[in-house]
Write a structure and sequence with these properties.
There is one protein chain. The protein starts with 8 loop residues before the first helix and ends in a 16-residue tail after the last strand. The chain is 56% helix and 5% strand. It has helices spanning 9-12, 16-20, 36-60, 66-81, 99-111, 116-140, 147-156, 159-164, 170-190, 195-216, 222-234, 244-269, 300-303, 311-320, 327-346, 357-368, 381-397, 402-413, 427-441, 447-477, 480-491, 522-531, and strands at 87-88, 91-92, 496-499, 517-518, 536-541, 554-558, 561-567. It is mainly α.
């Protein structure tokens, strides 16, 4: 590693032209004193974290979230019908972004139908994001060699990213394309490109945004335009060097070009024909996971764990804002604003705001790259407290009777306690308590080591959760037993319906060739039962399975609720007790 001097504050305020010329790479003073092992560890740690999480998810955790199961169900029926148009309960749904489905189908054509390949696709997208964010950090701050290290550590240590990288969901796939679009705009703004390079940069940004649209919905086409507007407005130091009209017009054209693939897709598949109808939305959510859940935005601070409660970053921000911020910092602020606006408009709610992890990681990397090393700045106990708290909850779940907790939960939240909480084991709780306490007590002397120490906390939490799935929670979240019973009924020639707002949770798990009929109301359920007297209907319920009004054909669990399969003859009308949601 080169031992060169740190960039001066005057260099931080250089414009894009000056930043490209005559400024040498700089490293943190304490980084030059790291041992070779510590230097290699700081660079390889993000990939080691990802390897641990991906292995744990594939080896121990089944596909659990509604959004995963719905995507797999759609891809499964597309495979059976040999179509490239996404399906929703067997019906064509061209408004669903198809890129994730196409990648799943392509892998199935090569490797055969499996569950591991769809789960590997978002992991590969996450890996591409980690690789690209380091290169973006060098584009923004070419005179600081430490920013890629911090950017990758911060990204792989964000709770939302740790969870999303192994989830079969579209927004993780859109993440590297959104970052690539910003990367192209940053290279344009920071460099002295000629006419052809300028055109190539705008086209690269448009192509990346177009892929983000095909992966996650039309709102990601707003990112180039919003970034272009934000860059021009925030960067007053170099605004005079730019043609405002040409720059803003380039952002508008880029966003329009990014919408072109979605528009052509809708026209070719008989969709609504308007790109604004493409993807998730507040009026017509694409998944059950995003339906009517604005309350999930309250979980955003938890999604940004542990950095949101790490005092070192906040002190570094306060120190940085006392001086005039540099061009790269302003670019990231524009990217952050664009990601927030696009995420809110997308209708994905908390999942839609996943893209903010990239600008936040870049901003944090810039702050840590110039943060003075002081003992008072190290407060790993604060972010480590959550790991200790979760471990304590897991531990108490094995001491306090579940029935008592359910009674208290009903008094506070009115709804019953999720049944899977009663299956939590003791091992993960003890592990979190012990390892979390040890991590919180360590006091490394280098900023890179301190960042590495805090970044490992969400990996510890997610790995403990994956271990819980392997030992205790899998029976609650694995829908294969219920889905296999539905498959047997369909193979016997019986029609199957689901009394709920069904989005295909059982289709892939049971390899169902026909999507069950969803019946949302009691009247629809009674009408369907009268039309299919030899069929079967699936219902969800809370409470005790010992209080059922009759003997069902099958009884099982699905995540946080009980499931029963009833013969259609048991539904004798809209007021039939088997349709009750609680017993």
């Amino acid at each position: 590693m080169a031992h060169v001097s740190l960039a001066t504050p005057q260099q931080e305020r250089l414009g894009p032209a000056e930043e490209r010329d005559g400024v040498r790479l700089a490293v943190l003073p304490e980084e030059s004193s790291l041992s070779p092992f510590q230097q290699k560890l700081s660079r390889t740690a993000p990939y080691l974290f990802m390897g641990v999480l991906i292995f744990g998810a594939l080896a121990w955790r089944p596909t659990t979230a509604p959004i995963e199961l719905e995507t797999l169900a759609s891809a499964w029926h597309m495979h059976l019908r040999d179509t490239l148009v996404p399906l929703r309960n067997g019906a064509l749904a061209p408004e669903v972004p198809p890129l994730l489905h196409w990648l799943i189908l392509g892998g199935w054509q090569v490797f055969g139908v499996s569950e591991w390949w769809p789960r590997l696709v978002p992991a590969l997208a996450a890996l591409a994001t980690v690789l690209l964010i380091g290169r973006t950090a060098l584009v923004l701050w070419p005179h600081r060699a430490a920013t890629p290290i911090f950017a990758r550590l911060l990204l792989t240590g964000i709770g939302a990213f740790v969870v999303a990288m192994t989830m079969v969901e579209p927004q993780t796939l859109a993440l590297p394309f959104t970052l690539a679009s910003f990367h192209a705009l940053s290279a344009l703004w920071m460099g002295r490109a000629g006419a052809w390079r300028t055109i190539a940069g705008w086209l690269a940004s448009a192509a990346a945004a177009g892929l983000a649209v095909m992966a996650g919905g039309w709102t990601w086409a707003l990112v180039p335009l919003l970034c272009a507007c934000g860059i021009w407005l925030l960067d007053d130091a170099t605004r005079q060097e730019r043609n405002a009209f040409a720059w803003l017009l380039g952002g508008l054209i880029t966003s329009a070009l990014a919408l072109l693939p979605a528009w052509l897709w809708l026209r070719s598949t008989g969709g609504a024909g308007m790109p604004f109808d493409f993807g998730n939305g507040w009026t017509d959510p694409a998944t059950e996971a995003s339906r009517a859940a604005p309350w999930s935005l309250l979980l955003l601070p938890l999604a940004l764990y542990p950095w949101i409660c790490w005092k070192t970053l906040w002190r570094a921000l306060n120190r940085h804002l006392r001086e005039k911020v540099g061009v790269g910092f302003r670019l990231c602020l524009a990217f952050l604003g664009a990601a927030i606006i696009a995420g809110f408009v997308s209708g994905w709610q908390l999942v839609g705001l996943l893209s903010v992890v990239c600008p936040l990681s870049l901003l944090g990397a810039r702050l840590l790259a110039t943060q003075d090393i002081k003992p008072k700045d190290f407060h790993a106990v604060v972010p480590g407290f959550l790991a200790l708290f979760v471990g304590l909850i897991f531990f108490l779940m094995n001491i306090v009777p579940t029935a008592h907790l359910d009674a208290v939960w009903r008094q506070v939240f009115v709804v019953p306690l999720p049944i899977w909480l009663g299956g939590i084991g003791l091992l993960s709780g003890l592990s979190l308590l012990v390892i979390g306490y040890i991590l919180a007590q360590l006091s490394p002397s280098h900023q890179v080591s301190r960042t590495l120490q805090v970044a490992i906390l969400p990996i510890l939490l997610m790995t403990s959760l994956n271990l819980e799935f392997d030992g205790n929670l899998r029976p609650f979240f694995d829908l294969t037993p219920v889905a296999s019973r539905m498959k047997q009924l369909q193979d016997a020639g019986l029609s199957v319906a689901v009394f709920s707002d069904y989005r295909g949770e059982f289709d892939f798990a049971g390899r169902l060739e026909i999507a069950p009929q969803p019946v949302a109301t009691r009247i629809e359920a009674a009408r369907w039962a009268a039309t299919h007297p030899a069929g079967a209907i699936v219902t969800y319920f809370d409470g005790s399975p010992l209080r059922l009004p009759a003997l069902p054909m099958f009884r099982g669990v699905a995540r946080d609720r009980w499931v029963a399969i009833w013969p259609a003859s048991a539904v004798d009308g809209p007021d039939s007790p088997v349709l009750n949601g609680e017993f």
